[in-house]
Amino acid sequence: MASPSIQWYPGHIAKAERSLQTQLKRVDVVLEVRDARIPLSTLHPKLDQWLGDKRRVLVINRVDMIPAAARDQWQAWFKSQGQVAYYTDANQGTGVGQISRAAQAAGVAMNQRRKDRGMRSRPVRAVVIGFPNVGKSALINRLLKRRIVESARKAGVTKQLRWVRISDELELLDSPGIIPAQLTDQAAALKLAICDDIGQAAYDTQRVASAFVDLLQQLDAAQQTTERLQALKNRYEIAATECTGETYLHQLAEHRFQGSQERAARKLLQEFRKGVLGKLSLEIPPALDLPKSSVESAVDSLTELSQTELLPNAVATAPV
Fold it and tell me: Coiled-coil region(s) at which residues (predicted)?
C-alpha cells in the first residue's frame, strides 16, 4: 500500500494530546468545534473513544463561509443522527451566546449530583476541542468578551493547554488542535489542506489547488448545480466546466500570474480560505454524498506521488 501523500503531526500536538487525555478526567462537558465547510472531515476518529459518555456540545464554526442552503442540509442531517448542532461565526460572535448556555446546562446534572452528596456547587469545567484552525481560540475569546487567547486563521497557533475562567459558572480548557497521528483518509486530508486546517508544510500547494478545482466540479455535478464553478468564473474569468483541475490551474497561471502555477495555486487557495470566492461548502451530508469513486478521483494526483516527490511526506515537527 502506498504511503499517504498528506501527513501532518507536529511535536506540540503530540505532546498536548497526551496532556489533554489526562485533563479530560477533570472535564464535565466537551465543546467539539468543527469547520462548517467540512464538518465530517473535521471529526476526529478517536473522539468517541476518548470522551466516553461525557456530555458534548457540537459547535459548527465558520457558518458564515457556507451557503444558507448547505447549513439547512447539515442541520437536518445532524438532527437525523440524533445530534443537536450549534452554528457559530466565532470571529463575529454570531451564535456564541448559545454555546455558553448549552455548556452550563450540561453541567446542571453534575452539580445536582454534588448537591445530593452534600458537596458545594462548582463551576462547570468544559474543554474546547477540535482540529487545528477551526476557530477554537476565537470562540473562547468571544465567550470571554475579550481577547485573552491567541487566535489566527492558520493551523498550529495554540501550542499548549490552558484553563480560563469564563464566569463564576463556567471554566474552559483551551487546547491545541488535535489531529490523527496518521491521516489514512486522504480525501479528508485533502479537504483539511484546502481549508488550511493543517500546516502548509504537509502538502504540495499546486496539487492541492488542482484537486480543489476537481472537487468543486464533482460537488456541483453531485448536486446538479453550477454554483461553485460559477464562483471560479466570476472571480478569474475562466470557465472550469470542460477541463481538469490541473489544466485550470495552468490556464489561471497564464491568465493572471505570468505563467507561475505556484503563485496561481497559492492565490486560489488563499482566496477560497478568505471567502473571496463566496460561500462554498466542500462536503455534502452523507444522504446526498458523492460516490466514493468520485471523491477518490479528486485525490488521485496526490496519492500517486512517491515520497520523494512531496517535500513534507515525513511527519512534520514543530517546537513546543
Answer: 215-242
How many angstroms from the chain centroid is the CA of residue 212? 16
Return the number of other C-beta atoms located less than 10 Å from residue 118's C-beta.
6
Q: Output the DSSP codes for 184-197.
A: --HHHHHHHHHTT-
Boundaries of every domain in the chain: 11-174, 205-303
Instruction: Tell whether residue 235 is among the known ligand binding residues.
Output: no
Q: Name residues whose C-beta falls within 8 Å of residue 29's C-beta, 6 or more positions apart in sequence.
A: 54, 55, 56, 57, 103, 106, 107, 124, 125, 126, 127
| 141 annotated ligand binder | no
Q: Give the chain's mean pLDDT.
A: 85
61 is in an annotated binding site: yes
Confirm or deny that 63 is annotated as ligand binding.
yes
Per the annotation, does 64 bind a ligand? yes
Higher pLDDT, 10 or 68: 68
pTM of the model: 0.84
CATH number attached to the domain at 11-174: 3.40.50.300
Could you tell me whether strands 85-88 and 55-61 are parallel, antiparallel, or unpaired per DSSP bridges? parallel
